[in-house]
Design brief:
Layout: H1 30-45, E1 51-53, H2 54-84, H3 89-109, E2 123-125, H4 130-175, H5 179-206, H6 210-239, H7 244-269, H8 284-297, H9 307-325, H10 332-361, H11 365-403, H12 408-419, H13 422-448, H14 453-482, H15 487-518, H16 539-542, H17 551-576, H18 584-603, H19 612-638, H20 645-667, H21 673-713, H22 721-727, H23 735-742, H24 745-752, H25 756-759
Antiparallel strand pairs: 1-2
Helix pairs in contact: 1-4, 1-24, 2-3, 2-24, 3-4, 4-5, 4-7, 5-6, 6-7, 6-14, 6-15, 7-14, 8-9, 8-11, 9-10, 10-11, 11-13, 11-15, 11-17, 12-13, 12-14, 12-15, 13-14, 14-15, 17-18, 17-21, 18-19, 18-21, 19-20, 19-21, 20-21
GO molecular function, one term: actin filament binding
Pfam families: Vinculin (PF01044)
GO cellular component, one term: cytoplasm
Length: about 750
C-alpha cells in the first residue's frame, strides 16, 4: 500500500494540544513538542516592563540580535533539509521565509537606535509597539512549528521507504529456489530489518499517545520474533519443497509479517486502509469507570444526562460480564457472584433513578441526602463487580500460567516429531489446541480488567500471538514428523516453541502489571507508595485498631477527595514539563503526587490504603517527601540570581511549615470513631493544601531553572547543520545518523538559541 508521508506527520488537523502554534496544529510527537517548549515558555513568561535602564536596554538589544542570528541558523538548517527533499521544498521555503521575517522584526523592535526617548531621566520606554511584538512572536512560533512539522514528515517518509524496501526483499525471499540465493537475499533482508527496527524504535519512543505506543510496540515485537521464524521456515521449505505442512508454516510467517508492517505504517501516518475508523476495544473496567463518572456527576448536575443513557451504559457492562459467566473456564463460585452482583447493580440503579427523578422535581435536603446514599451504593456495587471480574480473570490466569510452566506438550511434540510418530504428534497437537483455546480465553478475560488502554492492547496482542503461533507449531511438528531426520525441521520447531514459551513468560509480567493498576500502583510511580508493612510500624501504631470509613463518612469526604484527585493531575502536568525527569525536584514532586492519588483512592474505598491507619502512615511519608522537595528547591535557588528567587525561598519555607503540621496531625493519637474521622478529614485537607502549594512551586522552580540554563549558555554559537554532517559523514549510512540528519534533532539547538529573552 503506497502511503504519502505528507498526509500525516507530527501534527493533525484538529488541535487538542496547548502547543499548537496554529489553530490546525496538534503536536503528536515528543521531539517536536520538547523542541518547541523553550520557545513557547519564553513567549508566554516574558514580562513587559515599561521602564528599563540604559544598561538593560543595551542588553535587550544584544538579545534581539542574538535571537535574529539563531533564527537565521535555524532557517539555514530548514533550507538545507528542503534542498534534499524536493517534494517539501516549497512548503519549507515559505515557512523559512516567515521565520526569517519574524526574527528580523524582533531585532528591529529591540534596536535602541529605532526607539524614541520621551523621558529626560535615565529610563526610557521600550516595546511601545505591543501589537508589533505580539505579531512577530506569533509569526516566529507558527513558522518554527511548521518547519519542525515538515522535518517530522521526512522521518515518516524514511520509515515508509524502509518498509517498502523490506516488503520488496520479502517478495524476493518468497520466490527463491536455491539455498545460495536465499542466503544472499536474507543477508540484505536482515540489514533492512535492522534499519527499520531503529527507525520505528525511535518513533515509538517519540509518540505521545500511549495507546499508539503500545500498538507500535506490539507490531515491532511481532516483526522481531518473525524474523527468525522466517529464516527457519524458509530453509525448511527449501529443504522439503514438496511438503505441504512446511509451505503452510512459511506462508503463515510471511502473512503475519506483512500485517505487522502494515500496522506500523498505519500508526506512523495516522491512517487506516479504505478510510476505516479504528474500533477501540471495550472492556468492563473502562465501562465501569465511565458509568461511575456519570453517576457521580449527578452531584453537580441533575440534568446533564438521561436515565435511559445510564441504563444503556449498565446494560453494555452487564453484557460484557457474560464473557465471564459463559466461559467454561470461570469457576462456579465466581460465576454465581458475578450474576448476583449484576442483579444487585440493576436494583441499585433503579433506586438511584427513582431518587434522582424526585430530586429533579423537588430539591429538598432529605432528597439530596438520599441521592448521595444512592450514588454511593451504586458505585460501591460497581466496585464490587469490578473486583469480582478482576479476581475471576487473574485467578484463572495465575492457575493456567502455573499449570503450563513445565511446557510438557511442547516437549512431547519435539520428542514424537523426532521419532516420526505421526499418531502421537496428532494426539499432542490436539492437546496444544486445547491449551491455545484456554490461553486465548485467558487473554480475552484479562483485557476486560487490564485497567489501561495500553494494557488492553497488550492483551489483544497476546491473544493474537497464541492464536497464530499454535497452528504454526502444529505445522512445524507435522513437518518434523514427516522428516524426522531433518535438522532444519527440528530447528524450525524449536524456534516456534520458543516463541510460545516467550509469550507465556510475557503473560506473567502482564498479569503483574494488571494487578498493579488494579491496586492503585500507577506504573513507575509505584515506588513512591510507602505503605505500612508488618514489623515496620512503631510501637504506638501497633496499639491502634485499624478502621475503615463507612458509606456515610465516604460521602462527607468525597468532595475533598475529588479536589485532591484534580490536584494530582495538575502536579503531574507540571512535572511532565521538565526536560530532566531525573531532577530531584521532579522525583519528589512525582512521589508526592502518587501518594496523594492513593489517598484520593482511599476516600472512594479503593486502592492500597485499606484502613485509616494506612492513610495516616501515608500522610507521614507524604510530609517527609514534601520536606525533601523543599530542600531541593533551596539548593536550586542557590544556583540562580533572579527577582523571583526570594519568592521561591518564601514558598519553600511555607511548604516546610505545612509538611510539619501534617506530620503532627498524622502522628496525633485519637480514640473513638468520631475523632478518627476528624483526623482523616484533617489529614486529607492538609494534604490538599500542600498539593495546592506544590502546583505553584513547580512552575516557579522550572522557570528559574530555565533562566539559569539560558543565562549560562545562551550566547554559545550552535554549530551549523552542514558542519554537523561533514563531521559525522563516516556514519551517514547508519539509521541513527540518518534520523538525526533529517529529523528534529538537527533543529533543536537552534530553537534553544531563540529563547534569550527569557534570561534577560
Amino acid at each position: 500500500m503506497a502511503t504519502s508521508p505528507c498526509s500525516s506527520s507530527g501534527v493533525s488537523s484538529s488541535s487538542s494540544s496547548g502547543l499548537g502554534a496554529d489553530a490546525g496544529l496538534e503536536i503528536r510527537t515528543r521531539s517536536v513538542e520538547q523542541t518547541l517548549v523553550p520557545l513557547i515558555t519564553t513567549l508566554i513568561n516574558h514580562k513587559d516592563k515599561p521602564k528599563r535602564s540604559d544598561k538593560t536596554l543595551q542588553a535587550i538589544q544584544r538579545v534581539g540580535q542574538a535571537v535574529n542570528l539563531a533564527v537565521g541558523r535555524f532557517v539555514t538548517v530548514g533550507e538545507a533539509i528542503a534542498n534534499e527533499n524536493h517534494e517539501l521544498k516549497e512548503e519549507m521555503s515559505v515557512a523559512c521565509i516567515e521565520a526569517r521575517r519574524a526574527g528580523e522584526t524582533i531585532a528591529q523592535l529591540t534596536d535602541v537606535a529605532n526607539l524614541d526617548h520621551p523621558e529626560s531621566d535615565s529610563h526610557i520606554t521600550i516595546f511601545t509597539d505591543k501589537t508589533g511584538v505580539v505579531k512577530a512572536a506569533r509569526l516566529l512560533l507558527s513558522s518554527v512549528t511548521k518547519v519542525l512539522v515538515l522535518a517530522d514528515r521526512i522521518v515518516i517518509k524514511q520509515i515508509i521507504t524502509s518498509r517498502n524496501k523490506v516488503l520488496a526483499t520479502m517478495e524476493q525471499l518468497e520466490k527463491v529456489s536455491s539455498f545460495q540465493e536465499f542466503v544472499q537475499i536474507f543477508s540484505q533482508f536482515g540489514n533492512e530489518m535492522v534499519e527499520f527496527a531503529h527507525l520505528t524504535g525511535d518513533r515509538q519512543n517519540d509518540l505521545k499517545d500511549e495507546k499508539k505506543k503500545a500498538r507500535m510496540a506490539a507490531s515491532r515485537a511481532v516483526l522481531e520474533k518473525c524474523t527468525m521464524m522466517l529464516l527457519t521456515a524458509s530453509k525448511t521449505c527449501l529443504r522439503h519443497p514438496d511438503c505441504e505442512s512446511a509451505r503452510i508454516n512459511k506462508d503463515g510467517v510471511f502473512h503475519r509479517m506483512r500485517l505487522a508492517l502494515e500496522q506500523v505504517i498505519e500508526i506512523v501516518t495516522d491512517s487506516r486502509p479504505n478510510g476505516e475508523n479504528e474500533m477501540a476495544p471495550i472492556s468492563i473496567y473502562s465501562g465501569i469507570k465511565e458509568f461511575k463518572n456519570k453517576v457521580e456527576g449527578l452531584r453537580e448536575n441533575l440534568y446533564f444526562l438521561s436515565k435511559e443513557n445510564l441504563s444503556t451504559m449498565l446494560e453494555v457492562i452487564l453484557e460484557h460480564t457474560e464473557d465471564f459467566t459463559d466461559s467454561a473456564y470461570t469457576s462456579h463460585e465466581h460465576r454465581e457472584h458475578i450474576l448476583e452482583l449484576s442483579k444487585q447493580a440493576k436494583m441499585e440503579l433503579e433506586q438511584l433513578v427513582s431518587v434522582w427523578m424526585q430530586a429533579q422535581n423537588q430539591k429538598t435536603k432529605d432528597l439530596m441526602e438520599d441521592l448521595e446514599v444512592a450514588i454511593l451504593k451504586t458505585c460501591q456495587c460497581m466496585n464490587e463487580l469490578k473486583r469480582e471480574v478482576h479476581s475471576a480473570a487473574t485467578s484463572l490466569a495465575a492457575d493456567l500460567l502455573k499449570y503450563h510452566t513445565d511446557h510438557m506438550v511442547l516437549k512431547a511434540l519435539k520428542i514424537t516429531g523426532v521419532e516420526g510418530n505421526l499418531e502421537a504428534v496428532a494426539e499432542y497437537t490436539c492437546k496444544l489446541s486445547e491449551q491455545k483455546e484456554q490461553l486465548v480465553e485467558m487473554c480475552r478475560l484479562l483485557r476486560h480488567v487490564s485497567g489501561t488502554e495500553p494494557l488492553e492492547i497488550t492483551c489483544i496482542h497476546a491473544e493474537d500471538t497464541f492464536q497464530v503461533t499454535g497452528p504454526q507449531i502444529i505445522s512445524a511438528a507435522e513437518t518434523l514428523a514427516l522428516h524426522p531426520s531433518s535438522k532444519i525441521a527440528k530447528e524450525n520447531l524449536e524456534v516456534f516453541c520458543e516463541a510460545w514459551e516467550s509469550q507465556l513468560s510475557d503473560m506473567s509480567m502482564l498479569l503483574r502489571e494488571i494487578n498493579d493498576v488494579f491496586e492503585g500502583r500507577r506504573g513507575e510511580k509505584r515506588v513512591y507508595l510507602s505503605l505500612p508493612r508488618p514489623g515496620k510500624h512503631n510501637a504506638n501504631l501497633k496499639a491502634l485498631k485499624p478502621v475503615k470509613l463507612d458509606t456515610e463518612e465516604q460521602a462527607k469526604i468525597a468532595k475533598l477527595g475529588l479536589e485532591l484527585h484534580l490536584l494530582t493531575s495538575d502536579v503531574d502536568s507540571e512535572t511532565e514539563k521538565w526536560e530532566d525527569q531525573e531532577n530531584e525536584i521532579v522525583q519528589h514532586g512525582q512521589g508526592m503526587s502518587s501518594m496523594a492519588y492513593s489517598m484520593y483512592l482511599f476516600t472512594r474505598g479503593e486502592g492500597l490504603l485499606k484502613t485509616t491507619q494506612d492513610l495516616f502512615h501515608q500522610a507521614e511519608i507524604f510530609a517527609t517527601e514534601g520536606t525533601k522537595l523543599a530542600s531541593a528547591l533551596h539548593a536550586c535557588s542557590d544556583q540562580v540570581h533572579d527577582d523571583d528567587q526570594p519568592l521561591l525561598l518564601l514558598e519553600a519555607e511555607k511548604l516546610i511549615s505545612m509538611c510539619k503540621q501534617l506530620q503532627i496531625t498524622a502522628k496525633a493519637s485519637v480514640q473513638g470513631k468520631s475523632a478518627t474521622f476528624t483526623k482523616v478529614d484533617a489529614c486529607i485537607l492538609k494534604t490538599r493544601n500542600v498539593m495546592t502549594l506544590l502546583c505553584q512551586l513547580l512552575p516557579l522552580g522550572y522557570r528559574l531553572l530555565r533562566k539559569n540554563q539560558a543565562g549560562n549558555g545562551c550566547l554559545k554559537a550552535a554549530p551549523p547543520w552542514r558542519e554537523d554532517r561533514v563531521r559525522t559523514g563516516t556514519n551517514a549510512h547508519t539509521p541513527e545518523r540518518r534520523t538525526e540528519t533529517y529529523g528534529i534533532k538537527s533543529l533543536e539547538n537552534h530553537v534553544t538559541n531563540m529563547t534569550f529573552l527569557e534570561s534577560k
